[in-house]
Fold:
Amino acid sequence: MKSIPDLFGSMVFNDTVMRERLPKDVYKALKKTMSRGTHLELDVANAVAGAMKDWAAEKGATHYTHWFQPMTGTTAEKHDSFISPAKGGSIIMEFSGKELVRGESDASSFPSGGLRATFEARGYTVWDITSYAFIKDGTLCIPTAFCSYGGEALDKKTPLLRSMEALDKQALRVLRLFGNRSVNRVIATVGPEQEYFLTDKKIYLSRPDLVYTGRTLFGAPPPKGQELEDHYFGSIKPRVSAFMKELDEELWKLGVYAKTKHNEVAPAQHEIAPVFTTANIATDHNQITMEMMKTIADRHDLVCLLHEKPFAGINGSGKHNNWSLSTDTGLNLLEPGKTPYENAQFLLFLLAVIKAADEYGDLLRVSAASAGNDHRLGANEAPPAIMSVFLGEELTDILEALESGKDYLSKERPKMEIGVTVLPHFPKDSTDRNRTSPFAFTGNKFEFRMPGSSLSVAGPNIVLNTAAAEALRGFAEFLENSDDFTSDLALLIKNTFRKHKRIIFNGNNYSDEWEKEAEIRGLSKLQTTADALPELVSPKSVELFSRHGVFSETELHSRCEILTEGYCKTIRIEALTMTELVKSEIIPACIDYQNDLTSLLQRKKSCGGYNASLEEYLLSDIIKFSSRLPGLLSELETALFESQDDRDIPNKARYYRDMIFSVMSELRSVVDELEKLVAKKYWPLPSYGELLCSVM
Ligand code: ADP
Ligand code: MG
Structure:
């Protein structure tokens, strides 16, 4: 194997390759476009495309694709080869600047949420110059944004880039007020921690529910689950370790900073985390990571489950979105800093995020909403659906002291002009890590813990960036019109904290007391996706996103429709899978077992004298549960049939939750009871025990 530094980025057309292979003036022009967003001239694009093609061909690539992230939740690619016919029946390898910069594809097969009705079916992919091209499976992949003929975003990247611009603009305004002239850009940085399960491929394939829906729709609890807490950070089993090793190597080749890997809480559950990078690249890399996890698991006869809740009663998988703000000069704006001047700036940025979370908590919840994630949020393993911010005692005390005008802590610390003593340095673990908080400040970044494992992090970061941009805009507006910066800054810090401190909660988010307390505080609580999605098109949301040019009202409505459809379709597929499984496998298994028991019983009775109490006992229990199946099946089928009636978007989601999902839960509990009663050799599905302990 090559050394890791040699391996790293070997499949990426990165800055080093560009510097090596591009003429100086082309390289310079490209860098200018990258950092300042200036227009890219066609001759520059042509030169870059030529160099890219030569580099890719040397690495064995034969095709190129515009790689994009439509609203399906995964990535999309359509491969074109580099070949172009030439004289005498030969070919040449070609790739033009035009092909690099823009592609056209039929948008009509991707979800558009009604945008298609009003605009052309054509969709355009446009090169995202800020994310490097890479080679995957013999194809040069060019990260692109995907939009309609009219410029409406049809993907996740376009609004993410827009939100990063909005944040940059407002953060710069605030920095300028602090006299900072050296910073040219403020960038949202993201490091997503990715949880997943691994299961044996053979066992997986005999579970149609996992194959069709990504989660088990049935399954009685195993004798041993996660009770012993012996899996978290436990030693990694050889087969898993081989998978992780290959995954790291493949990700490194693709320039992904894969860094941390460990076992998670549940058996067969693991985590991978990269070193953070810009929000846009982190999002691309997380998509690549999820894809590679699936591909590489397959090579090891494993299946990687990215569903938020593959197994009932066992911890689900989340994706912690670590988020901060960084300047192009390398300063983390959420780093408390060492001097009073830095402290005040830090406090203001910190308060901007607190204000953002308080005012737009609903939208943060929406950004993590999906049918799969509904199984996690609020299930005493993941943060509850109530929005709050964990700050830690120390910072909370400081802000409280500022609010009340009292001195904070020690008298020896020099006092800063806004009235607060110099902040203590916060080591990352100065406060106990609060694992129950949905949104925790962890030393110099915020960790948003609501998102589920299969989600693209684009959505959460679009909301974080835009909501923070809005808070900073308000601060900038106020301070730009101030005659006395120092005293107005102190006032702003004090008032903002006073107004938004209700969102701060440092206690146990899983407790019943918190639920009551949060209600008194009036905090956002959107329990399910059906409750959350309508918030996306609320007047508040429309105002926020359109003010910052992130989403137009039309785009928001289209997204709301796509997400609602996705939610309903997911539940529909699960319900159909359930009915099919019950009819074709579970009922026949119950009948076979009953048959055998009955004939044994009859034989015993006809012989007379034998005690048949065991058979009678088993049969009566099986009949008790299995006799409920026909009624539940017909209830589910009727509900599915009636789901085709016309309903508006919010009602449709509620219908699926209340009329379909609820029956599915009941059906499941009956089948799980039957699994406990029916002898193993009759039961058609591998058990939870087999699934969770399948990988050695
Ligand atoms: P834990 O949350 O378990 O303590 P780490 O300290 O390893 O984990 O951090 C988790 C993630 O946070 C990593 O992906 C890391 O790169 C990311 N991270 C660290 N600093 C920042 C930052 N300034 N901005 C965004 N993400 C960050
Ligand atoms: Mg973490």
In short: Residues 189-191, 193, 260, 273-276, 322-324, 332, 444-445, 447 surround adenosine-5'-diphosphate (ligand 1) (CB under 6 Å). The longest strand covers residues 186-200. The mean pLDDT is 91.
